Amino acid sequence: MACSALLASSAGCGRLLTTAPDAADLFDAPLPGLSPAEHAAFVAGDEQFGKAFAISEGLGPIFNNVSCASCHSGDGRGRPENALMRFSVLGDPAPHLGGPQLQDRAVPGAEPERLPAGVESSLRLPPPVFGMGLIEAVPVDSILVRADPGDLDGDGISGRPNLVSVPAFVPAHEPGGIGPALGRFGRKAQVSSLVQQTVDAYHQDIGLTTDFRPVENVNPLASRPTEGSDRVADPEVPARVVHSVVAYLRLLAAPAPGASTPRREQGQAAFARVGCASCHVPVLRTGPSATPALANREVRLYADLLLHDMGDGLADDRRDGDASGREWRTTPLWGLRVMRGFLNGDAFLLHDGRASTVEEAIRLHGGEAQAARDAFVALPADERAALLDFVESR
Amino acid sequence: MRSCERGPSGRAARRAVRALLAGAIAVLAGANIAGGPGVGVARADDSLAAVPARPFVPGGFDDKPHLAGLFGRIAVGGYLEARAGWERQDGVTDELGIEVTRWNLLVSTRVRDRVEIFSEIEFEDGGEEATVELAQVDVRFAPAFSSRAGILLLPLGRFNLAHDAPRNEMVTRPAEAEALLGVALAQPGLGALGRIDRPAGARFTYEAYVVTGYHHGIITDSPEGTRLPAGRRNFEDANASPALVGRIEWSPRHDAVLGLSGYHGAYNVYRADGLPVDERRNVAVGVVDAEAPFGPIRWSGEAAIVEVEAPPALVGLFAERQAGAYLMASWRFGDHWVRSMPGSAFTLAARVEFVDFDRDLSGDSMRALALGLNFRPVPETVLKLGFERGETRDRFNNLSAFARLRLGVASYF
User: Fold this and answer.
1) Fewest 10 Å CB contacts: which of A307, A309, B198, B319?
2) Residues paired with A102 in a beta bridge
3) Does B271 contact chain A (CB < 8 Å)?
4) Could you tell me the residue range of the domain that residue B215 belongs to?
């Protein structure tokens, strides 16, 4: 009795004084097994990732949002309100038109961009940022071994790497720092390096110059001079802050999948049988790493990190590096289990968030995934439900 | 021009203006005097030589327990606030610290019978930040009409007018006042105030000023979206466009009040060198406040709505509609329980509050329940123990829970 009362009161006290959510349910938890120094780097980077910039601190002159965290909810995916519009002309990023990204916000005195006529455009929902260090640590060979551009095995799944050029500002010692490099990040695997990803996000999304990109992004089609509207001398963000954010991204864990149940095991079997696992490869493995928490780990991301033709329905008809308008990098399925908890109960799936359920997203698959999609639709209802339960528990 | 100023017609014009002013003052004064039995107070109260038994706002500019007596006309005092805090957010102890929150020096000077100067200098962060929070000169023509100029506390809600820590039953200020409106909110301005007394202790008061107003910082200096506190310090009128602020208060008896406040003004620079350089964008604020006892419990509260015209290219990121409110109940008990301190008493207090920083969005909000247990060894000094439990929501509507335990001490001197 006394023990029960003590437990009840401690539980009540916990609620009264707030309780920590389970790290397995979060997108912003650190990798397990980090050293105190790595924890310090993680905490410092977390602060920079969450830092919102005021206009008086350099935000803009044109931008999309005020911080990293304001696009990636809880470090997960974003909402349609945070979606970015990428555009280009025949594969050229079209900087003379304001490309490759539309900045539809502007500080007072500047002029936001409007989508120019005649360009190829693509709406992109901010992807999750957790687990990027694990993705980065997967050896190139482990990814390329699954590539089959000519579909020589005749299974209808090709899989192509996006070999990308690397901007000169990316240090050569950085993973993915020497081009052409294997693109791993972004909806079309158009980025090979976390440094590039971070620098470009500061530059394009928040309108902040860094030591790496020290020249302000302005609206080249503005009807009036707007250069004076930015209030802070460039560069606005020092290299150490960029490296701090990169370290944070590297050390972010992925949420744990849900517990295994008979129904989910049935769904997992169906997932493999209908062909989903051909692209959504359940497990990759990291190689050696200077960070022990990243070295030689199983990565349950359910993706092969290769480009696949997804058919007309999902095509954005916009080339991105080597990726065609019909190709998309296989989207990792990890984190779907807790996704709705960070999106106000909603789910925005696929590159532009058009699907609100996993089933809807599957039904929109085409191209190389057409056969798997059709096989899914043909499953008995209970098996289809089991497959969906499995996927939504990742 | 010289002849106009010095000639017969100039003198006539000045006489006419004087006559008009005298008439206006007589009308205002007469309104008080001729209001019937019990209306107003004796003529002696018309003079600052007699300290009114009832302050204009309890806890406000004329209700500070100053140490008087310097050179006959000067009163000096102030207050000190210190607190220790323990804060836990989502199960993680976030902050554990001790701070001297503020040290305020209050000085008032009576210049003859009808002119008085009030000033307050606030030192925060160990003296790193020093602010003139109040520096006003009042000229009292009549109880119903005084002029005021200087750096003054904006009559935007009652809490801003009486926010001294020794008065506040909680360790923290209400979020509606501090995080939404920017209390303590003091700006240069000028205008008028007055009171019209009615029978049986009833009273109507008003304050109306032109002030420098909130400046563009509410957008440009605020990384989290529209925040009025980021644009509250506007000592040189950044846009050369004053704002209007005013408050009326009806008090049916000495211990109950109902107040209505309003603010309207442009916050951005829309004109420079006589040329239009931007669209004029306004801030409008409405506040209702009330305080009254019901049995042994004293209730007080305030509710505010804010409308901000955001630049078109920032709509969606920067809020255009905000709101907030708090309601507090306090119960005084234990008078004389501590025999060695005959004037001592305890107070139990509870406050519920919310602020919605963007009414067009699910999220970007906070709500909290605060509980306080206070001991006043003497009326001017309070030892406070406070506990707050609440939650904030970011712009994605993600919830973050917090708990705060604070120990505070505040005292006038």
Assistant:
1) B198
2) A85
3) no
4) 35-412
Q: How far apart are CA B228 and CA A24, in angstroms?
A: 38
The boundaries of the domain holding residue A371 are 262-392
Distance separating alpha carbons of residues A228 and A231, to the nearest angstrom: 7
**Does residue B25 form part of some domain?**
no
User: What pLDDT, in 10s, does the model give residues A100-142?
Assistant: 999 999 999 999 999 999 999 999 999 999 999 999 999 999 9
Structural domain includes residue A267? yes
What was the pLDDT predicted at B48? 38
DSSP H or E stretch at residue A363:
helix A358-363
Q: Determine contact: A288 vs chain B, CB below 8 A.
A: no
Asked if B89's CB is within 8 angstroms of A108's CB, the reply is no
Extract the tokens encoding B219.
């957008």
**Does residue B2 fall inside a structural domain?**
no
- Residue A112 contacts B, CB cutoff 8 Å: yes
- Partner-chain contact A54 B278, CB within 8 Å: no
Query: What gap in Å lies between CA A122 and CA A323, rounded to an integer?
Result: 13
CATH number of the domain residue A387 falls in: 1.10.760.10
- DSSP character string of B168-192: -SSSS--HIIIIII-SS-EEEEEEE
Q: Which residue has the tokens 């000045």?
A: B14
3-state secondary structure of A39: helix
What burial class does residue B41 get, using C-beta atoms within 10 Å of its C-beta: 0-12 exposed, 13-18 middle, 19+ buried? Answer: middle
Q: Which residue has the tokens 């993706």?
A: A303
Domain total of chain B: 1
Task: Give contacts of A231 with chain B, Cβ < 8 Å.
Answer: 220
User: Among candidates A307, A193, A301, which has minimal Cα distance to A257?
Assistant: A301
Do residues A252 and A30 touch, judged by C-beta distance below 8 A?
yes
Query: Three-state SS for A362?
Result: helix
- Domain CATH code at residue B190: 2.40.160.10
For chain B, the average pLDDT equals: 87
Interface ipTM above 0.95: no
The answer to whether residue A92 is domain-embedded is no
Count the domains in chain A.
1
Those residues of chain A that have pLDDT short of 50 are none
Residue B160: what are its φ and ψ, rounded to 5°?
-65, -30
Q: Which of residues 188-247 of A touch B (CB under 8 A)?
A: 231
Which residues in chain B touch residue A51, judged by CB atoms under 8 angstroms apart? 223
The verdict on residue B196 lying in a domain is yes
Question: pTM of the predicted model, to two decimals?
Answer: 0.89
Model confidence over B338-348: pLDDT tens digits? 999 988 999 99
Which of B92, B217, B397 minimises the CB distance to A344?
A: B397
